[in-house]
Design brief:
- The structure is a single chain.
- By secondary structure, this protein is of the alpha+beta class.
- It has one domain: Double Stranded RNA Binding Domain (2-Layer Sandwich).
- Helices cover 35% and strands 29% of the residues.
- It is built from two helices and four strands, in the order E-H-E-E-E-H.
- Strands 1-2-3-4 form a four-stranded mixed beta sheet, with helices on one face.
- The longest helix is centred in the last third of the chain and has 24 residues.
- It is globular, with a radius of gyration of 15 Å.
- The N and C termini lie far apart (43 Å).
- The relative contact order is 0.18.
């Protein structure tokens, strides 16, 4: 199956304690494709989306970990929240800033 997303072949998404859906999978790939600017530097993307066991008074229902492997480093983002889609939005925006910072630090011309 050929995907329309550039990073799809280098992305591994794992779901824990929740049913994996195509909609969430495609949404994550779409956001990664939009927010990671220097895709040629990315060697591997590992994503863990976990639904936490509900405890009385706990509002943090989901956890998202994104690990982007780039040369000589791993850019990591963690996010917690109730709404999966809003959490993915926040995480990918943070990831964009961190990847930009990595690129400027290692590849900027002085």
């Amino acid at each position: 199956m050929q995907s329309e997303f550039e990073l799809a072949d280098r992305t591994h998404i794992t779901f824990h304690h929740m049913k994996p859906t195509g909609a969430i999978y495609d949404y994550i790939l779409e956001k990664l494709d939009r927010h990671i600017i220097h895709k040629d530097l990315v060697t591997d993307v590992r994503i863990l989306l976990k639904q936490t066991v509900a405890h009385k008074g706990t509002k943090q229902d989901f956890e998202l970990d994104i690990n982007v492997s780039v040369p000589k480093a791993v850019v990591r983002v963690e996010e917690k929240g109730e709404d999966v889609y809003a959490m993915i939005d926040r995480a990918t925006e943070t990831l964009q800033r961190r990847c930009k910072k990595y690129y400027e630090k290692h590849y900027s011309v002085v």
